[in-house]
Here is the input.
Amino acid sequence: MPDTPPPLFGPTQRRMISGSLVVLAVGAAAAAVVYGLILVGDVVGFLSNVLWPLAIAGVLALILRPIVGFFVRRFRLRRPAAVILLFGIFVLLAALGLVLVLPPLVDQILNFIAYAPTLWANAIAYVDLHYPQWVALIQRQMANPTIRHAADGLTTELQAMISHAIPSLRAAGGGLLGLAAFITHVAVIPVYLFFFLLARGEPVQKIKPNLPFLGTSVRDDIVFLLREFVGIVESFFRGQLLIGLIMGVLLALGFTTIGLKFGLIIGLIVGVLNIIPYLGTIVGLAVTLPLAFFQPDGGWELVALVLLVKAIVQAIESWVLTPKIMGERTGLHPVAIIVAIFFWGTVFDGVLGMLLAIPLTAFFVTAWRLVKRKYFKAAAA
Here is the structure.
């Protein structure tokens, strides 16, 4: 009997090769996912003018569907009549808001814009008075041609960034033509919303019959994931809108009570910005702290009061509002939320990605848990 040839690779070498192949496969899969997301982001960016009215109308429809259902059951209305009643109530509330709320808000916004140069002058005067050595140091360094050239270049870059972030009407889309296109996109949202609200049943209930080319198990998984995603979007935006409005009212009352200038409009805007997690906190601190310190009757005491109001409202949001309204629907760690906001904002190149960051991340977490439970454990067994 001839001798059996020795194996080409030893046990250690086989383990190293298999491990390398696993790492290579995982890396290739991750690269494919990233490339796919980049392609999706490019497509979404290209079609953004078409998609964002649909996205807004879809989210609003998910939020308002329970109200339409309540009108149908309570008043025994047909669904079109219930939707028309909801639109009528919204128009009435909007009219009341225009009459009662909008004038003081617009007044505070205009006053804040007019006060901005005074605030900057107060800040410069404070620095000149209390930190003259820093002013002298900066002036000496700015006399250096190299540093002066670098500062001029940085100023030019900042101006270019601002011009791209807040473009004029001409740069935004061809002057009046671009403005007309934007108004058209906004005007079509109620039309989309009306027809979305007319739909009965769950939004994903008709998906499964339209996937006959897939196996029963795969179709069940797709329907489950879509239902989870719709549920996450619905609960997230409904909860975030309600939490943002409550926080805006609380911050406005708190800032106005402690004597912060323009506290009403700043509190409301900061509260609404909390729809995007942490954005309201960052913008609020960046605006309120300098304003509290440099306004005529301000100082460290007013800064402390602003921080106290922010801490109290944040505690109410974290301990009362979010557990009661949102619950543990997303179940994401705060660090994961921050990374998700930057990641999806980069992928979709704008605010739309930041708004959808939490629902999308929660959806992928749910999908991963499903795949791990259903397929990986089955393969291991």
Remarks:
- Residues 216-258 form the longest helix (43 residues).
- The two ends are 39 Å apart (CA to CA).
- The mean pLDDT is 76.
- The chain is about 85% helix and 0% strand.
